[in-house]
Request: fold
Amino acid sequence: MGPISFYQILLIFAFGAFVYLLYLRGNRKNREINKYIASELENAINPVSKSYKNLGGTIGYKAFYERTGYINRIVALFTTLPRQSIIVYPFHLLFKGHDKLQLNIYSEKDLAVHFALVKKSLNYEKYLKNYSVKNLTQKEIEHNKETFLIFYNSDISLGFCRLLIEKFKMLNVLSIIANQENRLFHVNLIPRKGEIEPFIKIFLSTVKNYLKK
Reply:
C-alpha cells in the first residue's frame, strides 16, 4: 500500500468537515424542536410551576408542570430523532421514525371514562402494552381516511372517543388512554410545530366535563 496522496488527505478532511457540519445542523434543529415543544406546552398548560430534566444533549426533556384546577399535574416526555448522527438518522427515516411527545395528565377527581383510543397501524399494540383491554368492548371507526380502534367500558367513554375523533384535529395523535384506576389521561402524539398548543388547550378544556362530580 503506497503513501496517502495529497488529494486523499483532502478527501478525508472534506468528509470529516461534512460529518461535523451535519452534526451541528442536526443539533441545531433538535434544539429548535425542543424549544417550540416546551413553549407550546407552557402556553397550553399555563403552569403555576415547572421544571425540566434534560435527557442528554439535544435528545429531549422530561418536563413537570403543576397547574390549578382539577387537572392539576402534567408530566411530559419529548424526544427528538438523532439528526446529529449521519449513521443512525437515516435508519430512523427508513423505518418512518419521528419525534415523540408523551403526556401524562393527572386529575384530582375520578374519571367518568375508561378507554383506549389508538390510531390503527402496523404497530399500534405498543401503545397498549401497559394497558389491559381484555375486558373492554372494541369498536373500529373510520374518519377522514384514518382508522381508529376504540376499547371502552361505557357509552360515555365511547361518546368521548367519538368526540375526539370527529371534532379534534387528530392527524398527529397516535393514542389517548383514560385510566380510571390512576386518574390519568395518557396521550402519545407527533409534535408538529403549531399543532401542540391548540390540541392540548381544547383537550384540557374538554376533559373536565368527563370527570366525576
Q: What stands out?
A: The radius of gyration is 21 Å. The beta strands are 49-54, 60-66, 71-79, 100-107, 115-119, 137-143, 146-152, 173-179, 184-189. Residues 6-210 form one domain. The first helix runs from residue 6 to 45.
